[in-house]
Amino acid sequence: MGVARTNTRDEILAAAARRFADAGFKGTSLQDIADDVGCSKATLLYHFDSKDAILAALIAPAARELAALSDRIARLDAATARDVAIDGFADLVVRYRREIALIFDELMRMFQRPAFEGIWPHVERLIAACVGQSPDPDDQMLARATLAGLAAVVLNRTDRDDTALRESIVRVARRALLPR
Amino acid sequence: MGVARTNTRDEILAAAARRFADAGFKGTSLQDIADDVGCSKATLLYHFDSKDAILAALIAPAARELAALSDRIARLDAATARDVAIDGFADLVVRYRREIALIFDELMRMFQRPAFEGIWPHVERLIAACVGQSPDPDDQMLARATLAGLAAVVLNRTDRDDTALRESIVRVARRALLPR
DNA sequence: TCGGGCTCTGACCGATCGGTCAGGCACACT
DNA sequence: AGTGTGCCTGACCGATCGGTCAGAGCCCGA
Asked: Fewest CB atoms less than 10 Å from the CB: which of A145, A162, B62, B86?
């Protein structure tokens, strides 16, 4: 029928952003998005090559800005580059947290599976202990980020010597967490 | 037929661990595991209530130890608790990194989707800039962990004031990353 | 008025997956 | 020999999903 819909493409992206935020990428079917838009599933695939193409369009602005930041950094000396990297990182992370949430979504959903029931409180206790008794919200954020980051970093390690790896984690964690 | 298989249950868990490590939890079907064991899919569901139950059995030891660490910490004063928390965390993370990888698997797989093609090099450049030119491997680990952790932490924030959030991220990142 | 192209659609396809069920085999006990 | 029980299986089910396709309605330019 081709009803007068001026910018179906943008409506699809808006609906996809909503649905992905609610149920994640894998948890959202093309039919879900189509229902939100008020069109058929086939219409989505007329405007986009695939479900992945919708995702790509959604994160494209964030990816562009990240690339721009990366290029800017490449032309600076080490000291300046570090400052620009930190500022730019903070800026991107805050402005594009919806897009980043898309990436982390499946991770969060994993924790909600029955198999992981009841482990969150223990993790929280671990974090609280690392913060000590500081009321400073920055300390809170630092502790959460450090533990989460270290857990993620270890995955890419293929160290032969577990003891050495363990000790380096302790060193890094203490450096980040202990007051000076 | 019930062939003389003494410990099918353990064989299932071993096969599941292998498959999950290769293809992740979602990426592994019950049939995949059954093929590895050399039995039928129905046999898996005779020994375990569901696919989730297999996952639960796999992470049970890690969950138990985390709970034990959490309980131990709860009975200590703040200063000691922090030390024990860091040591215990490092120990758990190293010994159970396979189980942790299970949780992070879908996250890593997200980055391999075509939609994210080409963004890794930029992320790496960002990390490298944050490390500066230090050859210390601890600094490398710290930078990776800090950026990954901060990106994850921001997701649970619902701050009204984006500018303030941005500034606190910069403060925390600088505190963790800048040499003193 | 005619025709071509843009937009949109319902019907359909092939594949995957977790889970169920009735029944078969072998062994141990009586 | 008969019986029960633990272990295992093939066949099957219902549901989901991404993607394809032929065609229909509509607008616009010639």
From this structure: A162
Burial B140-164 (b: 16+ CB within 10 A, else e): bbbbbbbbbbbbbbbbeeeeeeeee
Distance between CA atoms of residues B138 and B28, nearest Å: 35
Phi, psi (rounded to 5 degrees) for B25: -70, -50
Nucleotide with minimal C1' distance from the CA of B37 is D8
Max CA pair span of chain B: 69
Query: What local confidence, expressed as pLDDT, does residue B4 receive?
Result: 47
Strand D lies under 7 A from the Cβ of residue A80: no
Give dist(CA B32, CA B34) in Å, integer: 5
Calculate the angstrom distance between C1' of C7 and CA of B119.
Answer: 34
Q: Which tens digit of pLDDT belongs to each residue from A47-89?
A: 999 999 999 999 999 999 999 999 999 999 999 999 999 999 9
- What phi and psi values does residue B45 have, to the nearest 5 degrees? -80, -5
Cα–Cα nearest to A176, from A132, A143, A151: A143
Are the Cβ atoms of B90 and A169 closer than 8 angstroms? yes
Residues of B in contact with A21 (CB under 8 A): none
Give the confidence band of A133 by pLDDT, cuts at 50, 70, 90. Answer: confident
The residue among A58, A53, A11, A56 whose CA lies nearest residue A36 is A11
Chain B contact present for A17, CB below 8 A: no
